[in-house]
Amino acid sequence: MSVLFDKFPESFRGKIAIRESGCWDWMGSRYGNGYGRYLPPKDRRMATGKDQRVLAHRFAYTLAFGGPKNEVINHLCENKACVNPEHLEDVTQSRNVRYSLSDTCPQGHPLTRGHPNTYIHPRTDKRKCRACMRERKRAEYRADPEKFRARKRADYVANPEAARAEARSRYEQNREVMLERKRADYWRDPEKYRARAREQYNRKAQERAS
Ligand SMILES: [Zn+2]
Ligand SMILES: [Zn+2]
Fold first, then answer.
1. Which listed ligand is nearest to 77 at the C-alpha?
2. Which ligand lies nearest the alpha carbon of 82?
3. 45 lies in some domain
4. Tell me, what DSSP letter sits at residue 107?
5. Number of structural domains found in the chain
6. Within a domain: 198
7. Residue 52 domain-assigned?
8. Interatomic CA distance for residues 51 and 37, integer angstroms
């Protein structure tokens, strides 16, 4: 991720807020349809004519992977403000429409409301694929564990109430799946599980004491 990020012009990077989800939220101006609007530096202009501003996510895709073949670039994360090239996919319009109606995610995981794999985002009410979210987080973590943890902490500090609400909603929507995962974790390596639980407990106790 950081490798891609470094490819972007300063004026682009300055308008991005990186989310825990991996999304790069566009903080600059938007078009009426919700997509980010960006004026590239002179040597990176894509548009011809008077208005040199372009769709921010389209610029991101082009810079990262080269010009898209299709008219429409799909947000795999369903976040219109996101300009992370890895969350974007070059698709035809009809496939794009199919995604929003589809009961599976682009990777084919089940994505119907009520299905254990589906997480409903508390603010946007959009369906999210848990399997894909997990995979994305894992990849981010593997790429740079320190950075991943630092970002999590920063997100939490920036808005503890929102972070807690989101964790709560995630938990309530899927208590059973989470318990099942905990059980599986435990049986995979009980000693390690207990050690981690102890460590967490101690850390919380310390936080309370200070
Ligand atoms: Zn995204
Ligand atoms: Zn998925």
1. 1
2. 1
3. yes
4. T
5. 1
6. no
7. yes
8. 11
